[in-house]
Amino acid sequence: MSENNSKAEEKTEEIAEEKVEEKEQEKQKEEKVIPYLEDVPFFGFQKLIVLKNKGIDPELIDEYIAQDGYQAAAKALLEMTQEEIIAEMKTSGLRGRGGAGFPTGLKWEFANKSEGDIKYVLCNADEGDPGAFMDRSVLEADPHAILEGMIIAAKAVGAHQGYIYCRAEYPLAIKRLNIAISQATEYGLLGNDIFGSGFDFHLEIYQGAGAFVCGEETALMHSIEGKRGMPRPRPPFPAHQGLWKKPTVLNNVETYANVPQIILNGGKWYAGIGTETSKGTKVFALTGTVKNIGLVEVPMGTTLRTIIFDIGGGVPKKKKFKAVQLGGPSGGCISEAFIDTPVDYESIAKVGAIMGSGGMIVMDNQTCMVDMARFFMDFVQDESCGKCTPCREGTRRMLQILEKITRGEGESGDIETLEELSEVIKDAALCGLGQTGPNPVLSTLQYFRDEYEAHIFEKRCPAKRCPALLEFEVDEEKCIKCGICFKQCPTEAITWEKKQPAHIDKEKCIKCMTCITNCPSDAIF
Amino acid sequence: MARLTAEDLIKLKEKVKNENALSKDGYTVKITVHLGTCGIAAGGDVVYEALKEEIEESKRDDIKVVISGCAGMCSSEPNVTIGRIGEDAVIYRDLDAEKMRKIFQGHVLGGEILNDYAMARIKEPV
């Protein structure tokens, strides 16, 4: 074989190799079209503890067992003393995920030390904040984790009976919980002498009828007792006198879902996640005007910006981010200036909101903050049980003032009255519902006082959301003559021809806001 | 089923894990339909029905269908995850009955991932 030939052969080989490489690259390119789950920002930025089993079949206990299920319960029942469990919980730094953030280990310790032959363990699954769906998703996706968390809590405090208080509006969650309870009972994981440890624990579901106030612990217990769901003053706290005046531990769904992981991996492991004062992860129900709506579990200390813009994908369709509401009707809004706030109990409280149970509603520049505050006050007013005067009467007066302002009838002094009422209700209301009810008003006043003032003094709604303050006229200079409003008007009140500005017939207009919402040039006022 | 001891628990875990490995239980495809309330509200139950019909028509008995809770991104629902033996699983988004049928024919039976409907790949073997 001549030199030339061999060179030529080498060359062909090289070319062939290059071609193969190219093909592989092409193939890789094609494959890269679909990213791996961890490379999708929505999933990649998350850290899953509570939601780690979201892909398993929730109606098969074996599937949960295959994910190390009930091993924490076995460890707690067979190898650990009550004190050891409580110590582990305290080491973990886990704080109540219902919103108040009380240290779980400490709560269990109080109930443990409280004297009494009969004690109870309760799970608060009465999720009621508008826009919140964390607990429902956990119950539907991984019901056994809640059962296991409750078994461990029962051992820690010495309780033999538990109730899950779940609202009847969550039929699928209740169905899956019932299946989980019957399967666990069949395996002897609930009932008498669990794992042959001599420890008994029985669990039942109590269906709530949907009153928001029943998420408050004392009202919840009254409801289980068959009484009207109304709160009572504390003390005595439930750890001393709870359900049927017996020492009781009440924790939120998400709190219990964390417990098996803590017992299995150790409190130190859990305390290694999160911030100085807030350990572990938090599940948020991300919703509102954000591209990716869904459940987000992130380590404590993640910034709101990461959650909303990286995970949530930001505000869609060229709209502008305005504020985010945390903690539903008990919480507050956070404006863009504080979007780099890390989520932990203290940092969130510092900027005027609360961690809450995890509802996170993103709002864009088309949201009127006065109207938003009115919406939440309407909710609180509607859900106020009426037992205490500050909440019953105070929230009604606040709602009336807010309605007046959005109708364009606001007067000088209204803002001050709202502030004064807020302070009195916060101080004097009987339970958390009233004590936190004015928060949305206070936080919108803190960040968006100018919008209140525009409504009251200029009779103008800057976000163009309050129909009473809008003219429903077309600014012919701004109008780009596109005809979108004309096509979408449900009452044919708009006339438009190609290359001509639109015109609104006020006689026919029903002020439905469709044209204003959809106008691409913001020309209707 | 009898009452479990702590040892039974570990044995059962290993047993289920083994059985779930596709090669060992005789199945070659595992399809997970994500049916939380959010998935059902978005039409997940219709997708599930369509899938069951397709499987029946295909007369394949090596396809396992399971349900689960919400996959996380509620705005992308209905979601379905398809794992073929020895391949990355693919999670599909925004499905309806028609898309489900196309995916069944294309990916489950044909082995071709339908990029238009796919959201992400999952590395772990199902």
Topology:
The complex is a heterodimer of chains A (525) and B (126).
Chain A: H1 3-32, H2 41-44, H3 61-66, H4 71-78, H5 82-92, H6 104-113, E1 120-125, H7 134-141, H8 143-157, E2 161-167, H9 171-186, E3 202-208, H10 217-224, E4 248-252, H11 253-265, H12 267-271, E5 281-288, E6 294-299, H13 304-311, E7 321-326, E8 332-335, H14 345-350, E9 359-364, H15 369-383, H16 389-406, H17 414-428, H18 432-436, H19 439-457, H20 484-488, E10 494-495, E11 503-504, H21 514-518
Parallel strand pairs in A: 1-2, 1-4, 2-3, 5-9
Antiparallel strand pairs in A: 5-6, 7-8, 7-9, 10-11
Chain B: H1 6-20, E1 29-34, H2 37-41, H3 44-58, E2 63-68, E3 80-84, E4 89-92, H4 97-109, E5 118-122
Parallel strand pairs in B: 1-2
Antiparallel strand pairs in B: 1-3, 3-4, 4-5
Helix pairs in contact in B: 3-4
Structural summary, described in words:
The complex is a heterodimer of chains A (525) and B (126). With 525 residues, chain A is an alpha/beta fold. Chain A contains 21 helices and 11 strands. Chain A has a 5-stranded mixed beta sheet with strand order 6-5-9-7-8. A 4-stranded parallel beta sheet of chain A has the order 3-2-1-4, sandwiched between helices. Chain A is globular, with a radius of gyration of 28 Å. The model of chain A has no long low-confidence stretch (mean pLDDT 93). Chain B has one domain: Glutaredoxin, CATH 3.40.30.10. Chain B is 38% helix and 21% strand. Chain B has a 5-stranded mixed beta sheet, with helices on one face. Chain B starts with 5 loop residues before the first helix and ends with a strand. Chain B is an alpha+beta fold. In chain B, helix 3 crosses helix 4. Chain B contains 4 helices and 5 strands; from the N terminus they run αβααβββαβ. Chains A and B meet through helix 3, helix 4, helix 7, helix 9 and strand 6 of A and helix 1, helix 2, strand 2 and strand 5 of B.
